[in-house]
């Protein structure tokens, strides 16, 4: 079959052929993948902007049992109102298998020798944790939510306190909506 001009095709003579090495279906898949990647990049960018806009005072975690609210306190005697670093992000796909909230884990009295402590400074519920499963639920799907691992609770608490002093602790809420 020969290639024809658009005018010949419109007049009904001969249908043009495609000499592309990539099929139209493959091209459609690539475009869909790029669109998904663009959505994920926008999500990450919005969450990172939220983290970088932390108010110029220390954020202290309070009421970690149920509401997981964050309360900001200045270095001086004055205290600011509750501050939350929220990122309400609308995603087109509902592929998140992570729970929306996490609760403060109970601390066991004695730990096995191979047990580790984790510090979460950016997550749904920042703090010091003993369970890797709860840490995963806490940071899953949150850009910048990389927990640090420690051998002892004292090391983990010292690292978390240092992050508080450096104003690096932020609670992030990601809201997923269906299209």
From TrEMBL:
SUPFAM superfamilies: L9 N-domain-like. Gene3D superfamilies: Ribonuclease H1, N-terminal domain. Residues 117-158 form the Ribonuclease H1 N-terminal domain. Pfam families: Cauli_VI. Transmembrane segments: none annotated. It comes from the Eukaryota. This is Ribonuclease H1 N-terminal domain-containing protein. It comes from Collybia nuda. The lineage of its organism: Eukaryota, Fungi, Dikarya, Basidiomycota, Agaricomycotina.
């Amino acid at each position: 079959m020969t290639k024809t001009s658009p005018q010949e095709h419109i007049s009904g003579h001969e249908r043009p052929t495609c000499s592309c090495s990539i099929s139209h279906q493959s091209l459609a898949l690539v475009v869909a993948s790029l669109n998904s990647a663009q959505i994920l990049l926008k999500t990450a960018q919005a969450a990172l902007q939220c983290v970088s806009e932390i108010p110029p005072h220390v954020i202290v975690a309070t009421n970690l049992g149920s509401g997981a609210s964050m309360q900001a306190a200045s270095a001086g005697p004055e205290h600011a109102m509750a501050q939350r670093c929220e990122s309400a992000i609308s995603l087109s796909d509902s592929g998140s298998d992570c729970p929306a909230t996490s609760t403060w884990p109970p601390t066991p009295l004695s730990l096995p020798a191979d047990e580790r402590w984790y510090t979460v400074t950016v997550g749904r519920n920042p703090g010091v944790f003993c369970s890797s499963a709860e840490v995963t639920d806490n940071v899953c799907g949150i850009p910048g939510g990389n927990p640090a691992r420690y051998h002892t609770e004292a090391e983990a608490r010292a690292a978390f306190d240092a992050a508080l002093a450096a104003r690096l602790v932020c609670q992030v809420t990601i809201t997923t909506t269906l299209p």
